[in-house]
Amino acid sequence: MMELNGRPVTPAELGALALYGYGHFTSMRVEDLRVRGLSLHLDRLLGDCRVLHGVDLDLDRVRHLVRRAAAASPSPTIVRVTVFDPELDMARPGGKARPEILVTTRPAPADLPPLTLGVVHYERDLPEVKHSGLFGPIMHRRFAQLSGHDDVLFVDGRSRVTEGPTWNIGFVRAGRVLWPESNRLNGVTMRLLNDVMHRTGIAVGASDIDADDVATMTSAFIANAAAGTRPVRSIDGVGLSVDEPILATLRREYAAIPGEPL
Q1: May I ask which residue range the UniProt record assigns to the signal sequence (predicted)?
Q2: pLDDT at residue 215 above 90?
């Protein structure tokens, strides 16, 4: 399904998004019309709309459109909300913005196997915003897969680990979970997992993690709304345990988080 403001979108209306890629989005897993961290997804949309478009977003309208799309799709489903201005003028992007709401759905993934990751130096523009400028991330994901990996892990100019194309990464060392502290998206699933760890007594923190530090880690996992948590088997050939008990606890406790109703 693909709808703009609750009706079928036309190719012409998608022109600005397709040609310029200027917009922002959030993706959420909807199960029985409930979403883990729904309020965090909505807060993200509101804040990113203010940054990129300079206006507020009608969050009640967003909820209505997401509920409409999810109700017409098999449960569970992944619903992506993309906010962009179909009338964006590339020559005058500083004009008054009139962002609209594109809602798309796709099947939710089943249980996914552990990942192998390649490492590449890459930094997203404005990493704190979940924007739709995905050329670089998808390009590097493609190159990683052509090199025999499942996905790609980004490091910055100082070789500090940041994030993946569409996910955060966490590490386990000495019974403690570590998130990279360098520039990266403050993901919804990451924030929910922090709540899980505080509730269950798992030690958690943030630190600069160099690419060379991967060899000192016991385990690693990625986190996003579509997959929840997913173990990492290796990073640039460095093997990691996929049987770490902390990973099983995070997966179980995350799945138990009650969804907020749409």
Answers
A1: none
A2: yes
